[in-house]
Design a protein that fits this description.
The complex is a heterodimer.
Chain A (H helix, E strand, L loop, with lengths): L10 H12 L12 H34 L4 H22 L4
Helix pairs in contact in A: 2-3
Chain B lengths: L20 H6 L4 H21 L8 H21 L3 H21 L12 H23 L17 H46 L5 H6 L1 H38 L2
The chains are: A mainly alpha, B mainly alpha.
């Protein structure tokens, strides 16, 4: 085989140079999904994340109240906690990666 | 049909009826179950027939099967890390089941099983139980440190711990409501605009202008179909990627 042609070296090296020459490998790593795709996905998630934390908190508060006969105080407490959890959910969704 | 066109029955389409005649009726086999079986067969058929040719240059079916397989596999490894390979079959099954369910629902005379919260909540609970079991198995009781992030002031524990627990428990709820609500909303919009077409075309006051005007909602429904195709893909994708993110949390904690 002609080792000098195509940069020489192992088969893997030659394959890589050939692929580069043909533009088969995307430059700069794999292609990321577009900003539109990403923001649409986040937009669809945000509202539900906020509400679902509140739903769970109200359910827990209501159930604990019925069990401990403290209606409505634990419900009030858990609505506040649920709101906080909803905000925490959204913060986790949008916070800068690092 | 024209006489009854003055009412919009947007939610009637989600009613469960029994399928497969008297045999199905005796065991309460609904059209929802029938669609699930059909989607299962479709997925199985796609993967079996798609994998059969094993051509270097794939045909259409093989390309589709490979795209789905490699796409989800890459997502698993990207999101979870190397451990993601172990969870790939689970995530792939979930993704395909939701995707085919969403897409089948767009066909006329079909039924969208993902438009029932009973179905989506079952899927979401399966995910969350798996995630919790995986986390407990890998980290043991150390898993409970997940509810108190390291570095947070201990004084704040009475607030942070309940908030984190609620946040954790809200995952299956948000996962199931998102899919269910998107599917219901899309199909309700189809029904409403379709009713508008009938109402305008049958209107006595508008006469033949009504028929021309009916083109409006008709065009809207055509555009809506394109949008719903996007939503069907996107919701299946979001369901799968969230499963991956939760699994990542379970495997790595924090």
């Amino acid at each position: 085989m002609d080792e000098t042609k195509g940069g020489g070296g192992s088969f893997e090296d030659r394959l890589e140079t050939a692929r580069k020459k043909q533009g088969l490998d995307a430059v700069g790593g794999p292609k990321k999904s577009g900003p539109m795709d990403k923001s649409l996905g986040i937009g669809l998630r945000v509202g539900v994340e906020l509400v679902s934390a509140l739903v769970v908190a109200v359910a827990i508060g209501w159930w604990l109240d019925g069990w401990l006969h403290t209606r409505p105080f634990l419900l009030i407490l858990f609505v506040l906690l649920g709101g906080a959890a909803g905000i925490a959910n959204i913060w986790r969704l949008v916070k800068p990666k690092g | 049909m024209a006489a009854e066109a003055h009412t919009i029955d947007a939610l009637g389409q989600f009613k469960l009826t029994t399928a497969l005649g008297p045999l199905g009726a005796s065991v309460n086999f609904t059209q929802s179950n029938l669609m699930m079986v059909i989607s299962g067969l479709l997925i199985l058929g796609l993967m079996v027939l798609g994998a059969r040719p094993q051509a270097v240059v794939p045909g259409r079916l093989q390309a589709l099967a490979e795209m789905a397989y490699e796409g989800i596999r890459k997502m698993c490894i990207d999101q979870i890390g190397d451990e993601g390979k172990a969870f790939f079959p689970f995530v792939f099954t979930l993704f395909m089941f939701v995707l085919i369910g969403n897409l089948l629902g767009l066909l006329p005379f079909s039924f969208t099983y993902t438009s029932h919260i009973a179905v989506t909540l079952t899927l979401a609970l399966t995910v969350i139980v798996l995630v919790t079991v995986v986390a407990l198995r890998i980290h043991g009781l150390h898993f409970f440190s997940y509810f108190f992030p390291p570095g947070a002031p201990v004084l704040l524990a009475p607030i942070i711990v309940p908030v984190e627990i609620i946040s954790y428990l809200s995952r299956p709820v948000s996962l199931s409501i998102r899919l269910f609500a998107n599917m219901v909303a899309g199909h309700v919009m189809f029904e409403v605009f379709a009713s508008f077409i009938l109402m305008m075309a049958a209107s006595q006051a508008l006469g033949s202008f009504g028929v021309i005007g009916a083109v409006g909602p008709m065009a809207l429904n055509v555009a809506l179909m394109g949008f719903e195709l996007l939503v069907a893909f996107l919701q299946a994708y979001v369901f799968a990627i969230l499963t991956c993110i939760y699994l990542h949390d379970a495997v790595h904690l924090h």
